Amino acid sequence: MSAAAHIEQLRAEINHHNRLYYLDAKPDVSDQQFDALLRELQELEAKHPELITPDSPTQKVGGAPLEGFTQIAHTVPMMSLDNTYSEEELRDFYQRLQKGLNREQVRCIIEPKVDGVAITIRYENGALKYGATRGDGRTGDDVTNNLKTIKSLPLRLPKDAPQTFEVRGEVFMTKAGFAKLNEERAEAGEELYANPRNTTAGTLKLLDPRIVAKRPLDLVLYGLADAGEADVNSMHDVHALLDKAGLRKADLIWTVNSADEAVAAIRELDEKRRALPYETDGAVIKVDDFGDQRELGATSKAPRWAIAYKYAPEQAETKLLAVDIQVGRTGALTPVARLEPVFLSGSTVSNATLHNFEEIERKDIRVGDRVIIEKAGEIIPAVVSVLKEKRTGDEQTIHAPTHCPVCNAIATKDAEQVVIRCTNPDCSEQVKRRLEHFVHRGAMDIAGLGSEKVGQFVDAKLISNVADIYDLDELRLMGIERLGAKSIDNLIKGIRDSKQQPPWRLIFGLGILHVGASGARSLLDHFGSIDKLAEASIEELTQVQDIGGVVAPSIHAWFRDERNIALLARLRSAGLTFANPQSEQLSDKFAGTTWVITGTLSQGRDEIAELIRAHGGKVSGSVSGKTTYLLAGEEAGSKLDKATKLGVKVLDEAAFRAMIS
Fold this sequence. Notes:
By secondary structure, the chain is α+β, with helices and mostly antiparallel strands. It has six domains: 3-59, Orthogonal Bundle (Helix Hairpins); 83-310, 2-Layer Sandwich (D-amino Acid Aminotransferase, Chain A, domain 1); 314-413, CATH 2.40.50.140; 428-498, 5' to 3' exonuclease, C-terminal subdomain (DNA polymerase, domain 1); 503-573, 5' to 3' exonuclease, C-terminal subdomain (DNA polymerase, domain 1, Orthogonal Bundle); 594-660, BRCT domain (Rossmann fold). A five-stranded mixed sheet has the order 2-11-10-3-9. Strand 16 (370-375) and strand 17 (382-386) form a beta hairpin. The chain starts with a helix and ends with a helix.
């Protein structure tokens, strides 16, 4: 057999097994056997690089990171759906269909509404041509390289399938994959992702497909933008097309011919959707026949032939067994409800947030109460209400703490907020939380030093403040349990590398009360060095963008505390960076302008902010009358609304890149 024929045979075999595994869930070879086939193909292609094609299974993961996303104009606009939240409104929708088509029976399809990111995918001549996000509905980002990393998405279609068409669907992150991703982040001491949907959106915006490939992305396809050569006249035909092309469609699909059947289907879906591998927040009801769809038409924003039925946030009843108090890095004492375990949103829940003690008093929450908890896509559920009618008289009032539960120091209420704080800065829990904050990815980003090791080192009395980290060496670390030579080497390297971090990260990492990452950047942009910042008066501090009358006194007091002065001296001696380097000024195109960044963009906000500064602009964390431009990515929220009201010019990323170039 020639090399070309052997390569084609291997590709066909691997694509066949991919389909069996990812679409039919009926693999007929072991993982080891599959990997052996893939390795054989990789070796052959390495010997014959002229035979490598873009649709080869070996090309699933893209190469070098992209500089930015190009835009793709949609062949058909990607519209959103109108929403309904009650069965009565769903019946009204069906009556509108009957009236619009002037007949009693209208056949509809009902599918789960996947809580993911809308995409369109085009195949031409049997090969994946591109995949793009919804964007503004008319133009989206070309995320083809990132979509190629999804194992269930074929790069080449079977020869007996239609070869040219465009389909639409939803990219999602599996529940199990999302949970594992957060476990890994928790182990590394990194901030947890809030929910699978937002994490999926952020992942698709990453510029390095190799990183995307490590994320548990998948997709479901449910619609047609362009039939191409295929004979498709209904949603049933679309499903047949997806099956023939080896593309994944919805796991649950109903065909209904009346309002009663539609209501029964959404109720059945509500019972079954928790077993699906992805998050769902509702059902989509759409007319089956394409002729009927054309007759019903659309408004400027949404089709009249489809609607999304949204389920109410998932709730469960359980018993409040106790209230634990967690101690944060600033001494904040936060109440957490310990619950009788209850199944909610696909997992067993045994704790929930109570927010603060004023909230407990306002809702009159007591230990022993039967409570309603709610989880609407977030990690930690919340206690939303108390079933006071079920009280027995044995419930116990929850009192705000007067002392820290860990170190027994006096607890005081923050004058400006509802927060109650432990007043002992040497409280072991405060120390651990401060250290975790200092080393985490958004601050000093010390690889190899996660929350578990921080706790271990504090308990072993190796470290008690952030400066102690830079005194760690191999000799001190050798006696620590479960810490091998390789881990020690990685940790020492991570500590050494962190000394080169820009000084705004150090300011943020120090955990000064009320100073976030944006505020730390503004401070260092304004003063240029930590030394000048330390000398600033309250009045001078209030002149800094994003620093107001509450934050300035907090910063001023921190730099005049003897303990903090000594801490900074040790960090300086350790070789950390205290002054901003002279950054390269690319141009003065944005001189005199103030920018606010919101939404999901192709690069991290920090990187884009640096780009704006390099062209002479200023970056702020909040929209005001002084804002010149709002740079808005996908999922822009309240900042976009405020900018619109204030008449601030709003730019998408394409316009921003055009201004720079």
